[in-house]
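Hey there, shall we discuss this one?
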Amino acid sequence: MTTQDPDGPLAEQLLRFTRRVHRIQKRHIEQSGLGVTPAQSRLLRTLAHYPSPPRMADLAERLEVVPRAVTSLVDGLETSGKVRRVPDPTNRRVIRIELTEDGLKALRALHGARRSAAQEILAPLTEDQREVLGGLLDTLVDGDVNRC
């Protein structure tokens, strides 16, 4: 006899919701016409959080991917003029990655695409439901089991 997993249906709902979010965000990013993949979008957003240009190893660590994956992403973004490789001013052997003006413009457009995706995703919810969802998401993101 098997026992029913009480969180099984909820886990499946979360998985389906996550896939839907990714699918809608991908569509909105594609519609932006920037020629940026979701992974490149994530790298651009991550890059913007650094106070000075990071090394590729720093990006790989923050993105939790292997350095080779960052190299491929940077290659594509560099080809499209959104980032550039620059030498470290204190160590010639180190290469840093910085956003270009086109990269900053792309980030602004991507922000708009993400907001429109969020509006589409949240459209079925009332204001009260959005407030409740926001509180639940805060709890899940923080991982604090004592907050509810």
